[in-house]
Amino acid sequence: MRRKRIVFLCLILYLVTGFFWCNPGIIKEISGNSVSGETPEILADESGDIWNGHYALVRLEDVNPASEISSLEDCIELLKSKNIPFSIALIPIYRNPEKNVTIYLHEKPELVRLIKDSGATIVLHGCTHQYDGETAVDFEFWDETTNAPLEINNTEYAIAKIELALEELKKCGLSAEIWETPHYTSNYEVAAVVSRYFSKIYEGYAGKLTVNEFGQIVVPTNLDYVKGEHPVQSVFEILAKAENISSSDDEDIVASFFYHPFLGTDYLRMLIGGLKKQGYQFVGPEECIRVKAYL
Ligand SMILES: [Zn+2]
């Protein structure tokens, strides 16, 4: 009789241990999240994936007046259909000096409408995202040929560029409270000017939200982006990095990437699906700042 009871107890212990071994998320759910004080009620999204405690962010990159509308529209539709908050890095003026082309955002009402209706957080991504080359390819606040700051009055130049960009946004009935430096590259003078206009920036590769020397909150893009030359490899690299973050106990580490809509929706769909499977919960940058900027 006694032996039977011991065997029975061992069997129960085996089953309970086995259950938790196969469902490690459950332990976290039971013990961890409710103490941290961060949205403990959200443990699973509608698909049933258990939240890994980390936030994911996605930004549609380099959207400008010359952008192809259909691919942007497809990406926006995909994100909206999955209820994923996102941001758009917007360049309000397109320039290509070689072809003598300048296009202002207000000249593209269909694009303006699409951006407005998307519900995305607008991130101002420079004014023209170029100095003497083509928009989105060139640097705006850096000389890549000498790998040094532009040899001009950078303070005056940055003020003029930001003022022009804000004026163009206003013409379109848009506004932006977050800044992203083109190619994440400028110098101290430019960064100081940016800090006069924006208290939040969205750039760099830190794992967590930080505050920089100008007192600005910095939302990172630590997972980088899908590279057009080898997109599938990029997707796997991003998901591998995210998997590492997912298993980290430090829930302040986010999984943040940006995506060029001209690549179509396939890789974006793979990333979103993969990150959701890993248990990420998507938030927009403003929401992420609200919850995580206790810094
Ligand atoms: Zn860019």
Overview of this protein structure:
- By secondary structure, the protein is of the alpha/beta class.
- It has 10 helices and 11 strands.
- It has helices at 2-22, 24-31, 33-36, 69-81, 109-118, 154-171, 188-197, 231-246, 266-277, 285-292; strands at residues 55-63, 87-90, 93-96, 101-104, 121-124, 178-179, 200-202, 210-211, 217-219, 255-259, 281-282.
- The strands form 2 sheets. Strands 1, 2, 5, 6, 7, 8, 9, 10 and 11 form a 9-stranded mixed β-sheet that branches. Strands 3-4 form a two-stranded antiparallel ribbon.
- A hairpin with a 4-residue loop joins strand 3 (93-96) and strand 4.
- Helix 4 packs parallel to helix 5, helix 6 (154-171) packs parallel to helix 7 (188-197) and helix 8 (231-246) packs parallel to helix 9.
- The chain is globular, with a radius of gyration of 23 Å.
- The model is unreliable at 7-42 (pLDDT under 50).
- The structure holds zinc ion (ZN).
- Zinc ion binds next to strand 1.
- Residues 61-62, 125, 129, 136, 182 line the site of zinc ion (ZN).
Quote the CATH topology: TIM Barrel
CATH class: Alpha Beta
Proportion of residues in helical segments: 40-55%
**Spans of at least 5 consecutive residues with low confidence:** 7-42
Cα Rg: 23 Å
* Bound molecule types: zinc ion
Instruction: State the secondary-structure class.
Output: alpha/beta
Oligomer: single chain
User: How many individual β-strands?
Assistant: 11
